[in-house]
Automatic annotation (TrEMBL):
Gene3D superfamilies: ABC-type transport auxiliary lipoprotein component, Tetratricopeptide repeat domain
Species this chain originates from: marine sediment metagenome
InterPro entries: TPR-like_helical_dom_sf
Protein name: Adenylate/guanylate cyclase domain-containing protein
């Protein structure tokens, strides 16, 4: 028996030696056969923790936009947000998530002004492929997000058809206040507790009141009703699931390209069989 491998102290010492030597503790994941990218959580530079929803929201919007093209392999939010508020090297991210490129950045929101910095890095070499700083009015946030997405796609030498371009740059709303409410509601949802879910529903309903044609808002509202069931806060689980079905179908009726809504609808059909 090789009992030495069961000795945690020994394993820890080996890991420490590997780190000291600059060697990875685990082998890197194989790269996909198409350009692959992880978008790390943008850092909130405002100094106000209440603005965290905005920097997180910008990150999620960029992930969503990039995910709309099948020509890119994009790491999901749940994986990249594990690096939030942690000192991380892009080479480590690339190795652990199995991607060639990493996008990182920061957001500073003050009143009606916003500064966004973004840089695209080759995770294998550490070289910068593209970097930019945007100082804009808050009302121009949609244009900034579109520009960042375009710059990434161009830097990765991905060619989009007209239909793919339309999907990538479809944002769902042009109303800034509705958009900000959605970002806030999504952050509240991400707490994944009863209080956060209740707050999220109120906030997302406010977004819909500001823009009744906002597809993503209906999808997220549907999610809050389903999470009532998961969190055991639903008075009538069957009614909550039925409401969730109604809302996600509304989202798809408004935007049939909303992939996450289609996925959620399939899940709901599965649990209602």
């Amino acid at each position: 028996k090789l009992s030495v491998f069961k000795d945690q102290k020994w394993l820890d010492s080996v890991a420490a030696m590997l780190r000291k030597a600059g060697l990875p503790e685990t082998p890197p994941l194989p790269l996909p056969d198409k350009p692959s990218i992880a978008v790390l959580p943008f850092v909130n530079m405002s100094g106000d923790p209440k603005q965290e929803y905005f920097s997180d929201g910008i990150t999620e919007e960029i992930i969503t936009a990039l995910s709309k093209t099948p020509k890119l392999f994009v790491i999901a939010r749940n994986s990249t947000f594990t690096y939030k508020n942690k000192p991380t090297k892009v080479q480590q991210v690339g190795r652990e998530l199995g991607v060639k490129y990493v996008l990182e950045g920061s957001v500073r929101k003050a009143g009606n002004k916003v500064r966004i910095t973004a840089q695209l890095v080759d995770a294998q070499t550490g070289n910068h492929l593209w970097a930019e700083r945007y100082d804009r009015d808050l009302k121009d946030i949609f244009a900034v997000q579109d520009e960042i997405t375009k710059k990434i796609i161009t830097a990765l030498q991905v060619k989009l058809t007209e239909g793919e371009q339309a999907r990538v740059y479809a944002r769902g709303t042009n109303k800034l206040e509705a958009y900000l409410k959605l970002l806030k509601g999504r952050q509240q949802m991400n707490r994944f507790n009863k209080e956060g879910n209740a707050l999220a529903r109120q906030t997302i309903e406010q977004a819909i009141a500001l823009d009744p044609q906002y597809p993503v808002a209906y999808y997220l509202l549907a999610m809050t009703h389903y999470r009532d069931v998961l969190l055991r806060s639903a008075n009538n689980p069957k009614r909550s699931i039925a409401k969730s079905l109604e809302l996600v179908q509304k989202a798809i009726a408004l935007d049939n390209t909303l992939a996450e809504a289609h996925g959620f609808l399939g899940h709901l059909f599965g649990v209602t069989k």
